[in-house]
Amino acid sequence: MRSKQIKKERPSWDSYFLRIAQEVSRRATCIRRSVGALLVRDKHILSTGYNGPPSGLPHCTDIGCLREERKIPTGERQELCRGLHAEQNALLQAAIHGVSVKGSVLYCTSTPCSLCAKMLINAGVVRIVALEEYPDEFSNHLLYDTGIKVEILSLS
């Protein structure tokens, strides 16, 4: 005798990975913005990253933020930040562990800045799915010009 099947609504893969990116962002130590990123290929997580300073350096949550002190707007003068972006950390973690990210999808809590966009382009990322847009118009142009599809999704 067959039992009655119960239809369970499951999240899409995009929603699933974006929710994981949100959880990864909780590890961020940036005072201004918590970002989480995943690099995924064939529905498997290759690496994760969140924003914070390089290994061994004090966290901004412990010593403060130079950008905040100087009142530098989001999306400007990124070289004056002690931290690495979540996308950079995801790429570096993959490299440290010898994992190719060519052909992968970036799931991130926000779209990349232009510096991260250039790295993602050269790493072979083919698609970006994010929860919100980062205020960097040049990044949008770079990604569009290289044919990388960027999608903003909302989770309900």
Considering the chains and any ligands shown, give keywords for the structure.
single chain; 156 residues; alpha/beta; five-stranded mixed β-sheet; 6 helices; 5 strands; globular
Question: What would you say this structure looks like, in words?
Answer:
Helix 5 (114-123) links the parallel strand 3 and strand 4 (127-132). The chain has helices at 13-25, 60-63, 66-69, 86-96, 114-123, 137-145, and strands at 36-41, 44-50, 105-110, 127-132, 149-152. A five-stranded mixed sheet has the order 2-1-3-4-5, with helices on both faces. The chain is an alpha/beta fold and 156 residues long. Helix 5 (114-123) packs parallel to helix 6 (137-145). The protein contains six helices and five strands.
Q: What is the structure about, briefly put?
A:
This protein has 156 residues and is α/β, with parallel strands linked by helices.
Beta-strand segment tally: 5
SSE sequence, one letter per element:
HEEHHHEHEHE
Strand coverage percent: 15-25%
| Shape summary | globular
Largest sheet: 5 strands, mixed
Q: What's the helical proportion of residues?
A: 25-40%
Number of helices: 6
Name the average pLDDT.
93
Alpha-carbon distance between the termini?
37 Å
Alpha-beta classification: alpha/beta
Query: For the largest beta sheet, what order do the strands appear in spatially?
Result: 2-1-3-4-5
Low-confidence sequence ranges: none
What is the radius of gyration?
A: 17 Å
